[in-house]
Amino acid sequence: MKQVTLKAPGGLDNLTMAEVDAPAAPGPGEILVRVKASSLNYHDYRVCSLPGALPDGRIPMADGAGVVEAVGEGVSEFARGDAVVSCFFPEWQAGDERPFDFSTVPGDGRDGFAREQVVLPATWFTPAPKGWTHEEAATITTAGLTAWRALVVDGGLKAGDTVAVLGTGGVSIYALQLAKAMGARVIATSSSDAKLERLTALGADHVVNYRTTPEWGAEMRRLTGGRGVDLVVEVGGPGTLAQSIVAGRPGAHLALIGVLTGRSGEIPTALLMARQQRLQGLIVGSRTHQRDFVRALDAMKLRPVVDRSFPLDALAEAFRYEESGAHFGKICVSI
Ligand SMILES: NC(=O)c1ccc[n+]([C@@H]2O[C@H](COP(=O)([O-])OP(=O)(O)OC[C@H]3O[C@@H](n4cnc5c(N)ncnc54)[C@H](OP(=O)(O)O)[C@@H]3O)[C@@H](O)[C@H]2O)c1
């Protein structure tokens, strides 16, 4: 079978395709999955492009979707032919014991899904949303579940709320689609006027160019009649958080997800306190969150926005496309 590994010292030029032996038959509690697709996330890009971030020989990619080809003894949850999706934190099945690093995450602390077949515990997967392509399904592991957790699990989204989403990457577009599907209003930003048009076509109620309107927090307040937004899906980090606090209403929920503008910086803490806002960091979610999310998707009309798909042997090219920032929504890999 084919797989991609990252050779030392890392960097996109060292993603190497190889032919290796197929895995052994699944043991007790395991399933053999023919991986059909993965999707790119900023995290995968960071660890593959940053020299030394991954050990020699690591198989990248956190997201994996495919078909169960065989089940081991004692597996009752899945059967041959089922469409499944991998979990970001395979050992975080449920509850409040949250992982605090990436040591258990496929494609980072352990081998990921840039390969044709895997034999892994059945509990590392959930069913895929019904009727979705494998590429669509692969987008739920990281980007989709993060948006779901930010809005629903942590943010308590309800119809009529106003949600701010920043930029047009995978998490933000998912958040826009979910928020609209659940009856919320959405204010979306982008650095590109062409992408703003696409955001409007996707259902955004208002759009703001964050380059030409650097005080976009005040603009969001204006667009909400001075009230401010109820929820911010904060993917920017230090370079955007101050504006997100300005944009938020008193009591707003700010879901701190991303580091697109850097890893640390100044926060207007007095304003955060005065507005009595809740700033909640999060990393993806548990398997139970993913099951709930898939159940919700099965009840919604939503389908994720897949910008482009690349074959597995063009993984480096796919990351370079992500690096260019030209994409809108998810970039996928077909395997
Ligand atoms: N905590 C978690 O669980 C979790 C999970 C997934 C992702 N993340 C993080 O969330 C962030 C986004 O991830 P992703 O996979 O969605 O990335 P992505 O698909 O690569 O998104 C990139 C997009 O972000 C937008 N952007 C860049 N700088 C911006 C800024 N200053 N203000 C607003 N938007 C900006 C750009 O949109 P325009 O081209 O429209 O300007 C760009 O196209 C990353 O930091 C990632 O590590 C965290």
Automatic annotation (TrEMBL):
InterPro entries cross-referenced by the UniProt entry: ADH-like_C, ADH-like_N, ER, GroES-like_sf, NAD(P)-bd_dom_sf, Zinc_ADH-like
UniProt xrefs under CDD domains: MDR7 (cd08276)
Gene Ontology molecular function terms on file: oxidoreductase activity
Q: Where is the Enoyl reductase (ER) domain?
A: 10-333
Give one Pfam hit by family name: ADH_N
Per its record, how is this protein called by name? NADPH:quinone reductase
Task: List the PANTHER family hit by this protein, alphabetically.
Answer: PTHR45033, ZINC-TYPE ALCOHOL DEHYDROGENASE-LIKE PROTEIN C1773.06C
Q: Which residues form a coiled coil?
A: none
Whose protein is this, by species? Albimonas pacifica
